[in-house]
Design brief:
Strand 3 and strand 4 form a beta hairpin. The protein has two domains: about 120 residues, PH-domain like, CATH 2.30.29; about 60 residues. The chain is built from five helices and seven strands. A four-stranded antiparallel β-sheet has the order 1-2-3-4. A three-stranded antiparallel β-sheet has the order 5-6-7. The two termini are about 25 Å apart. Helix 2 packs antiparallel against helix 3. By secondary structure, it is an alpha+beta fold. Helices cover about 50% and strands about 25% of the residues.
Length: about 200
């Protein structure tokens, strides 16, 4: 019965997560994404920048030649092009950073943790950690900003080499921590049972 359920979950996970290479009877238990608060803050900044640039353009275009921004028509046209270019750069930077930010994911299966990391448009990596190799799972918040936004870093330390894997900008993952810790204990217990049988 347990084996049949694992096969069903495996089939469902292969359908729902085609980018992940799953082993036999392995299935995804958790998909952890970065917090949605960071994109909200970035797009708020872009909107504020747009308002500032529009206001600046209006002020420059409405001034007369002896006003605060004394410019002739060609200078005002050049200034408008500069403002549009700067805003275009801000918008493109925001789009790229949100694409990179959103492509960082952590999948927890019943056997492994699969971390897909992207540092830039052309730099990505995948880390795979067997649950039996994990010694400690913790969540760390550093500084007042992370406490106010209720985000932090999920940390997983491995046995032996003592490598620590981190996943930043996660909403406070109390339930996720419990689930990962439980899966680690279950996988270690099953490994011990397999060793004792042989």
């Amino acid at each position: 019965m347990k084996s049949d359920l694992a096969k069903l979950r495996h089939a469902r996970s292969k359908k729902d997560f085609p980018d992940i290479s799953l082993e036999e009877n392995e299935y995804v238990v958790l998909k952890i994404k970065r917090s949605n608060i960071v994109p909200v803050l970035v797009w708020t900044g872009v909107i504020l920048a747009a308002i500032f640039f529009v206001a600046l353009t209006i002020m420059v275009n409405q001034t007369v030649d002896n006003g605060m921004f004394a410019m002739n028509a060609s200078s005002r046209g050049f200034f408008s092009i500069v403002i549009d270019t700067v805003f275009g750069v801000v918008l493109i930077a925001a789009l790229i950073s949100m694409n990179v930010y959103g492509n960082n994911k952590l999948f927890v299966t019943n056997k492994r943790i699969i971390q897909q990391s992207q540092a830039s448009l052309f730099a990505s990596s995948t880390n795979v950690i067997d649950l039996v190799s994990i010694e400690d799972v913790s969540f760390k918040q550093a500084g007042i900003v992370e406490h106010l936004l209720k985000v932090g870093t999920l940390r997983m330390s491995t046995i032996g080499e003592e490598t620590t894997y981190t996943f930043k900008y996660v909403d406070t993952p109390i339930d996720e921590l419990e689930t990962i810790t439980h899966l680690v204990h279950v996988e270690k217990q099953e490994k011990d049972e397999r060793v004792n049988r042989h």
